[in-house]
């Protein structure tokens, strides 16, 4: 039996794809396909696959010559602009919510922590893919240091960017959060993460479609439920454009 994932469904509907994640959901048909793919993935992948399995990793010879920038490319907030002007010297990542030890880290402290480097394929909901090299801190390391509560079910990423004043955010469950390939990347292809790709850090959750890979992460929150957080769907695209929450591939 072939497991139908959302990526399979979207690629099959490639004639409907438009340029940019912010435009793809203009088609009601695409929104329906997203929902169908989500149901197949959620009911199938979680039941018949090992969610601890690793996503494929590649070599530097496989790196894509071009890696598109999707979504926002430059947050407009005055706070982010100030951080960018100082090369993120005063920026701090906050970790809190349902944890015993909330804390914050500077970019220098994140880079001094144990690191993981991986070369993986980014699969966009638009139907394109690219291979890049990422270096960053395993999210599991930070959550363990914070002593995440046994009641926490999800990890929410609050970001510096927005769409027409609506804050951007995303979320994953603890299975993906504790996965060894889920990292907060500060380096891309051995260079500091570019602003267009989410500087100073972005989430890499390698077994999920690209819109789950939140950019411009400012704050991480452990929560029991997604209800009451913005639109309650678990992410900006989920709240406003019909994307489904689970995006496993």
TrEMBL record:
Residue span(s) of domain Oxidoreductase molybdopterin-binding: 87-224
Classification via InterPro entries: OxRdtase_Mopterin-bd_dom, OxRdtase_Mopterin-bd_sf
CDD domains: bact_SO_family_Moco
One Pfam family in the UniProt entry: Oxidored_molyb
Family matches, as PANTHER family: BLL0505 PROTEIN (PTHR43032:SF2), PROTEIN-METHIONINE-SULFOXIDE REDUCTASE (PTHR43032)
Protein name: Oxidoreductase
Organism field: Novosphingobium subterraneum
Lineage: Bacteria, Pseudomonadati, Pseudomonadota, Alphaproteobacteria, Sphingomonadales
